[in-house]
Amino acid sequence: MEVNFKALDVYYFGILEMNGKRYVLDSNSLTSKRYYWGFAPKEFKLDIIELEASNRNFDKKIKMAPEGRRSIAISISVALSSALYRIGAGIFRYYSISQNLYLKILLFLISILVAFVIYRGIL
């Protein structure tokens, strides 16, 4: 038996080709959550839907930005993150935030909340 997996540009879907038939895998329905923590379970369950032979909606390849654009985007993000780090470090030193445990915990929780909101907004 030959089994082929194909990645899609949507994170939580994949294509499984097995015995000449094609299936859509929904990784959100994965029941053994140990997989997400890096462990290889012996058995797991997930939802699959069989595709008709005429369905070509999932034949699209993952779109990548041209090499020049990726380099520019990486350069901008590195420069932006280093500038934000310097500003943040200056604020921490000026206001002595490093000495205030409750304020540090609050800032940490706010950053987790903002990251979650951005993550849910992108998907």
Low-confidence blocks of residues: none
Spatial ordering of strands, largest sheet = 1-2-3-4
- Element pattern in H and E: EEEEHH
What is the distance, rounded to the nearest whole angstrom, between the alpha carbons of the first and last residues? 35 Å
Quaternary assembly: single chain
* Count, helices: 2
Secondary-structure content class: alpha+beta
Number of strands: 4
Please outline the major beta sheet: 4 strands, antiparallel
C-alpha Rg (nearest Å):
22 Å
Helix content: 40-55%
Apparent shape: elongated
As a percent range, the share of strand residues is 15-25%
Round the mean pLDDT to the nearest integer and report it.
Answer: 76
Question: What features would you describe in this structure?
Answer:
- The two termini are 35 Å apart.
- A 4-stranded antiparallel sheet has the order 1-2-3-4, with no helix packed on it.
- It has 123 residues and is an alpha+beta fold.
- It contains 2 helices and 4 strands, in the order E-E-E-E-H-H.
- It has helices at 67-95, 101-122; strands at 3-7, 13-18, 21-26, 47-51.
SSE layout and pairings?
Elements: E1 3-7, E2 13-18, E3 21-26, E4 47-51, H1 67-95, H2 101-122
Antiparallel strand pairs: 1-2, 2-3, 3-4
